[in-house]
Amino acid sequence: MGYVRESTAIRARYKRCSKAWESHIIASRALCLEAVAQCLSFDHCVVIGAGLLFDVPLAELAQQFQRVTLIDIVFSDETRMIVDSFANVRCCEWDITGCVNAFFDAVEYSATSSAALALPPPQNALREIVGDTRIDCIISASILSQLAVMPKLYAEQRGVYQRLPESAWKAWETSLMIGHVQNLQSQGQCVCIMFDQERMILKQSRTTLAHVQPDWTIIDRESAMGELPSDALYTQVQATHPHMIQREWLWEIAPPGEEHKNYCVRHRVGGVVAWQSLQDNKGEKISPLLVE
After folding, report:
1. Which residues, listed in sequence order, are joined to residue 93 by a DSSP beta bridge?
2. In DSSP terms, which residues pair with 286 in a beta bridge?
3. Residue 177 and residue 193: Cα distance in Å, rounded?
4. What gap in Å lies between CA 198 and CA 30, rounded to an integer?
5. Nearest-10 crossing angle of helices 166-187, 230-238
6. Counting Cβ atoms within 10 Å, is residue 67 exposed (0-12), middle (13-18) or buried (19+)?
């Protein structure tokens, strides 16, 4: 379905754009460490969308927690080599939506027949991986708005995307995101979510003067979250994890010259850390289970 190819393309783009991505990576890693600071215990940390580890402070997580589980639908050999240097870290190659296999089968059936395409609902794959145990810290690393991207592209490639109205695709995409957040809430004492909020395309104004800093004008912008606005996400998380930190930053995902010399692509990234712990009057963190 293209997941391996996409991982390879992201690694290649990072090598070309590492300077432009630096502030995003710093902000992402800092948010992960803000989540660690809110933890009550340090047995198990789970990172979903760990991928190529660019935005994950793996060394710090491995030092803080007894065990760290990295989850993604595909891991590169390069990532596995890094992980092998940590005795308490493991890679788990798994589809966190729990429905990609069913989606693949549905697309293939529809592509080879006249049958309508049936979109499978998301499943709680997190529970399949770690069981019913409570997890001290769960990090979702910039995958929330990406969960439906590769499946939708695959449906287009197989010529069945148009068999469903756009409203059905949007509803399915939203269900994947909401299901993902609910799964994080259900098992994480502390939840950290990084997500793309908005995609912007900017055009550089023409100038013939070398000493003049060019201006950039936004010529197109669209929500990366579809029908799940950021405020709705924060409200959903805060219903079960009342203590919250919110962050926001810009990610120059395609700097000038990457796709066109006069254009660039920026993402507005959101970050949230939410936890269930409380503090006593001395400022010490205590479990809500101990509070009457």
Report:
1. 72
2. 278
3. 11
4. 21
5. 30
6. middle
Between the alpha carbon of residue 103 and those of residues 69, 75, 107, the distances in Å are: 25, 21, 6
Token representation of residue 89: 């870290």
Check if the beta carbon of residue 100 is closer than 8 Å to that of residue 73.
yes
Mean pLDDT, the chain cut into blocks of 10 residues (292 residues total): 92 89 95 96 96 94 97 94 96 95 96 91 92 93 94 96 95 96 95 94 69 70 87 93 95 82 88 79 45 30
- Token representation of residue 204: 């550089």
Alpha helices, H only, the chain? 3-37, 58-64, 77-83, 100-111, 125-130, 149-157, 166-187, 230-238
The span from the CA of 260 to the CA of 2, in Å, is 24
Question: Phi, psi at residue 105, to the nearest 5°?
Answer: -60, -40
Q: Are strands 263-275 and 188-204 parallel, antiparallel or unpaired?
A: antiparallel
Q: What is the residue-wise DSSP string for 221-267?
A: EEESSTT--HHHHHHHHHTT--EEEEEEEEEEEE-TTTSBTTEEEEE
DSSP lists the bridge partners of residue 152 as none
C-alpha 25/C-alpha 55 separation (Å) is 5
pTM, rounded to two decimals: 0.89
Residues 253, 249, 271: CA angle, nearest 5 degrees = 105
What's the CA gap between 154 and 169, in Å, rounded? 13
DSSP label at residue 211: T
Coil vs helix vs strand at 142? coil
